[in-house]
Amino acid sequence: MAKPLDFGAAFRPAFLILLLLSLPFHLEASIDLVLANAGVMPEKEVKKIEEMGNELYERTGVPVYVAVVGDLNDTRPVDLIETIRKEHPTYILLYFSLKPPAVNIFASDDARKLVDIDQILSPLPWRGTIRPIMSPAFSKDEGVKQEVAVFNGYADIVDQVAESKGVKLQSSIGSGGRTTFQWIRTLFYAIFAIVIVQFIVTARRRRVKS
């Protein structure tokens, strides 16, 4: 009597082959996006950056790197970019240097079209998401300013790339959070400007009286 066909056994080799073929894709989908962190970002923020960046990379193929270096002369952006280009011709790199203080965004020609670099790096408090935070008016604590600037800038880049690609990220901190922060920052600078104006007006009145 002929044995009934075992369809499970027949398809098992094919299933294993498909599984093995799919493994490299999933392994490569997650990459290290924080190239350097000179003690600025706590582990919690590093994980959040990796989460946002890897979801963006998996869904769009655009890796957004961040490097916070202690000394620009020790880790130059050109060296980092050279290493990145070997595996990812399309890339974006948010670069911070603590000594001397510097910040810049580097991107391949095709990735540059996906973000508004001038807006992100603008010194205007109602426009920029990095440099206004680095101002002495924002906070006296350098560590706080650096931490907020890096995270805020990276989140802005990731969201802009996702929007350009028509993708909605589950890990995004959301434009609402950044908008609220931007209004608070603008209000702070407005109050700061009013204080300066009042000081100048008071000083002039005293000169006139004297």
Explain this structure to me?
56% of the residues lie in helices and 12% in strands. It has helices at 7-29, 43-60, 77-87, 109-112, 117-120, 142-164, 175-209, and strands at 34-37, 64-71, 92-99, 102-107. The chain has 210 residues and is α/β, with parallel strands linked by helices. Residues 5-28 and 175-180 have low confidence and may be disordered. Helix 2 packs parallel to helix 6. A hairpin with a 2-residue loop joins strand 3 (92-99) and strand 4. The protein has a single domain (32-209), classed as Roll (Diaminopimelate Epimerase, Chain A, domain 1), CATH 3.10.310. 25% of the residues are buried. It is built from seven helices and four strands. A four-stranded mixed beta sheet has the order 1-2-3-4, sandwiched between helices.
Q: What class do helices, strands and sheet pairing give?
A: alpha/beta
Distance between the termini: 120 Å
What's the helix-strand series? HEHEHEEHHHH
Largest sheet: 4 strands, mixed
How much helicity do the residues have?
55-70%
Helical run tally: 7
Return the CATH architecture: Roll
Percentage of β-strand residues: 5-15%
Number of strands: 4
Sheet with most strands: strand arrangement: 1-2-3-4
Rg (CA only): 24 Å
List the helices and strands and how they pair.
Elements: H1 7-29, E1 34-37, H2 43-60, E2 64-71, H3 77-87, E3 92-99, E4 102-107, H4 109-112, H5 117-120, H6 142-164, H7 175-209
Parallel strand pairs: 1-2, 2-3
Antiparallel strand pairs: 3-4
